[in-house]
């Protein structure tokens, strides 16, 4: 994919016949792996110094799901039958998960649409949502649905008026079709973003407009539907006030109901010992904007940058620390993602994490 300056933002490659986002052009993988290892080891050492005491209510009760992850292999569900989705939801219920968030109904950059569409006919199409909804109804799962997925919307530095208008039209076209497929509790805005250590008025205004337009579009159809966003927590305590000012500018009058920040521990972009300050800042922002705060716990550990060998299940001990450190500030815990990382498919590490999520016992 290219932006208006012909810069390739998100190179796409394939693994086992499935398209994925690849590391960006010019990415120094050796240097990044060294930094990743250093950051992961730092969090592992910090974990040893934490005294973790979980309450019975400190459980993950929601999880993202997908047709397939856009940047790692995981457990692709592109052709999974209804029975496979029912087995996943049975397993989720055993782990106390009653709510799922389907990441994106389509991905522009990957050229894939995950439902029967009459609009996005140039994409490779799969009937994933239809089968997922049938299984979700059988297991009485609450569903939040990600709509039109376009990764560049939240990350591009420059966005023309024409690009913004086209982006909003695509969201409307996708949402109109999704309303015919199944019952859902709300919509998730799938284009992620983050505070990048500086104020950026054009980007702040663009994200506020995207959020507000998305919320107005959904609530004009059904005012009871909730709107969720899940940006990354890229928070340096030294820039705490700037972080809060950035997000207050983005969220003011945005129509967002639930803020569910990624904790960024699995990606080693945050330190465990900084989580108290980070989530205090999120709580202050969401209280000011009258938005409900959930956590998005990364229950994985990044060990690389390519889809065949990059993400693995986190240890239950680390996930327990993430829960304990966010619990004082949030109403509920979601995770990325229990479909694969807390499963037999992920091997012994996945089975151990699944057992913890079922029992709460380390």
Describe this protein with a few key phrases.
362 residues, four-stranded mixed beta sheet, globular, eight-stranded parallel barrel, single chain, disordered N terminus, 39% helix, TIM Barrel, alpha/beta, 11 helices, 16% strand
Description:
With 362 residues, the protein is of the alpha/beta class. It has a single domain, classed as TIM Barrel (Alpha-Beta Barrel), CATH 3.20.20.80. Helix content is 39%, strand content 16%. The chain has helices at residues 29-48, 82-94, 128-138, 152-155, 161-178, 201-221, 240-251, 275-289, 316-326, 338-341, 347-359, and strands at 12-15, 18-21, 60-65, 99-102, 106-107, 112-113, 124-125, 142-146, 148-149, 186-188, 226-229, 258-259, 292-298, 300-302, 311-313, 332-336. The strands form four sheets. An eight-stranded parallel beta barrel has the order 3-4-8-10-11-12-13-16. A four-stranded mixed sheet has the order 7-6-5-9. Strand 12, helix 8 and strand 13 form a beta-alpha-beta unit. Helix 2 (82-94) crosses helix 3, helix 5 (161-178) packs parallel to helix 6 and helix 6 packs across helix 7. It is globular, with a radius of gyration of 19 Å. The protein starts with 11 loop residues before the first strand and ends with a helix. Residues 1-8 have low confidence and may be disordered.
